[in-house]
Amino acid sequence: MPLFFFDLVNRVGLVRDDEGREVADLEGARALALSSARSILAEDAVGGVIDLRGRIDVRDEAGQSVLSLDFEEAVEILYGPPPQPSEEQAEQ
């Protein structure tokens, strides 16, 4: 399996991945980057801060950039009042 490197860029700076992870293909690398970004955001949320300015840059074995996943792409932010329950839900 190909080796990919997942570099984190956030408010701390650049955290370079020097070990890499074996992943089947680029689609698998994107899925791993997405999962990693969501884990980072979840950990930050526990501390009361969600900083969507970060990203994960993925490099292949040759060191070439193959994708960049912005934290904004990892989550959907919903705003506004909470949805009202349906009549059926309210009766339960």
Strand and helix layout:
Blueprint: E1 3-10, E2 13-15, E3 21-22, H1 26-46, E4 55-59, E5 65-70, H2 87-91
Antiparallel strand pairs: 1-2, 1-3, 1-4, 4-5
Describe the structure.
The mean pLDDT is 94. This protein has one domain. The longest helix has 21 residues. The protein is of the alpha+beta class. It is built from 2 helices and 5 strands, in the order E-E-E-H-E-E-H. The chain starts with a strand and ends with a helix. The protein is elongated, with a radius of gyration of 18 Å. Strand 4 and strand 5 form a beta hairpin. 28% of the residues lie in helices and 26% in strands. Strands 1, 2, 3, 4 and 5 form a 5-stranded antiparallel sheet that branches.
Salient structural properties:
alpha+beta, 28% helix, 5-stranded antiparallel sheet, 92 residues, elongated, 2 helices
Question: What would a concise description of this structure say?
Answer:
By secondary structure, the chain is an alpha+beta fold. It has one domain (3-91).
Q: Roughly what is the average pLDDT, rounded to an integer?
A: 94
Q: How many domains would you count in the coordinates?
A: 1
Quantity of strands, as a count: 5
Span from first to last CA? 51 Å
Gyration radius, in Å: 18 Å
- Count every helix, treating DSSP H or I runs of 4 or more residues as helices: 2
What is the ordering of alpha helices and beta strands?
Answer: EEEHEEH
**How does the overall form come out from the CA principal axes?**
elongated
Q: What percentage of residues falls in helices of 4 or more residues?
A: 25-40%
By helix and strand content, what is the structural category? alpha+beta
Describe the sheet with the most strands. Answer: 5 strands, antiparallel
Low-pLDDT parts are: none
Question: Which percent range describes the beta-strand content?
Answer: 25-35%
